[in-house]
Amino acid sequence: MAGKQEFYWRRLHSLLGVIPVGLFLVQHLVINHFATGGEESFNNAAHFMEQLPFRYFLEIFIIFLPLLFHAIYGLYIAFTAKNNIGQYGYFRNWMFMLQRVSGVITLIFVAWHVWETRIAAAFGAEVNFQMMETILSSPFMLWFYLIGVVSTTFHFANGLWSFFVSWGITVTPRSQVISTYITIGVFIALTIVGVRAILAFV
Ligand code: HEM
């Protein structure tokens, strides 16, 4: 009984990592990429997102609650999982371990990022190009953001690979090899978009 319940919790954890949290991540990085077009371009894109109807509903039910559940249950998985890279030095075992490590780094990064942007906005600060420029003018914060974004894109792309396995989409070894190439492509593309956006503020 307990085993069956855990199965459903893990399925939910897996699903939420892609829909909606993963989709939100992609959308968020694309909006940030408007910074490469200059201050006005970024501010217009950010303003458009702030003006969306049902903003608070979307933020709470499409972003905050799914991410909170994924993060809390993710921490439980990360600290109870058996990392066996010592026993088997295979690529997939490394990816299994890195998925957990990147989850924890992503959690620290996202918590801080939400605090200094979205929570600050709730207390009256204006989130715009200038705000990010000020934050990223500190070399420490610049590296913190670069590591945080790369950790998040890795976590999502590598998570996509295991998501396809978890949901029975890639069953054969051949389909799993193809999926490895596709998710490496996703990782590279999202990392370029994310890093270019950060560097546009510097
Ligand atoms: C932007 C934020 C995040 C995104 C887009 C995301 C996405 C994903 C995806 C797609 C998976 C694969 C699901 C599967 O294996 O079927 C996954 C797995 C995982 N995530 Fe996240 N995640 C995020 C944040 C976090 C955070 C903050 C933690 C906290 C530690 C975390 C911990 C984990 C763990 C441990 C797994 C492995 C689950 C397993 O092997 O069954 N994730 N994530």
From TrEMBL:
Cellular component (GO) terms are: membrane
Quote the CDD domains the UniProt record gives: SQR_TypeB_1_TM
| Superkingdom per UniProt | Bacteria
Q: Which residues bind heme?
A: H28, H70, H113, H155
Q: Which SUPFAM superfamilies match?
A: Fumarate reductase respiratory complex transmembrane subunits (SSF81343)
Q: What Gene3D superfamilies is this protein classified in? A: Fumarate reductase/succinate dehydrogenase, transmembrane subunit
Record-linked InterPro entries: Cytochrome_b-558, SQR/QFR_C/D, Succ_DH_cyt_b558_Firmicute, SuccDH_FuR_B_TM-su
Q: What is this protein called?
A: Succinate dehydrogenase
User: What organism is listed for this UniProt entry?
Assistant: Mesobacillus subterraneus
